[in-house]
Amino acid sequence: MxxxxxxxxxxxxxxxxxxxxxxxxxxxxxxxxVRPLLEKVGPTVGLPDDPELLVRANGVAMxxxxxxxxxxxxxxxxxxxxxxxxxxxxxxxxxxxxxxxPERRAQQQVQFLKNLGLLGxxxxxxxxxEGRPGLAYRAKLVSASAHRAARxxxxxxxHAARAAxxxxxxxxxxxxxxxx
Length: 180
Description:
Elements: H1 3-25, H2 28-45, H3 51-71, H4 75-93, H5 102-127, H6 135-179
Helix pairs in contact: 1-3, 2-4, 3-4, 4-5
């Protein structure tokens, strides 16, 4: 792991670990914030109608995935989980478009954009293969290899069939000469 990854991952993860712990310990602070989004999206997605449970679950996910990212364990999965937790958190906590007060609207917009920047960092971390080929590249290699193997097998089968046909004709000619 490069020095940049070793330093950047814990830096990116720190906010999620601290914020997740706060959400888990003190969900009441966030339940009022979550409720409007839960009322809009909850029935469609099939979420339980318990904002406190959802805030705590989000906090646990943030702590677990943030810790994994900080330690460099399963960083792509951890980053993906953190990105998934950040989207509803940002939409629920920073709806600057609903604010009427210009000063409050500006504050919410800054927080929204900060979270958008974090989301960008998480998406980069989620696709970071550390210089090794990703799954798509590996799948393409396996597919190409399987295609070559199938083509070679078909070619060898044709050659074997032709050789068997030649051998059969030769044996037939030899048998006619032996009889005649």
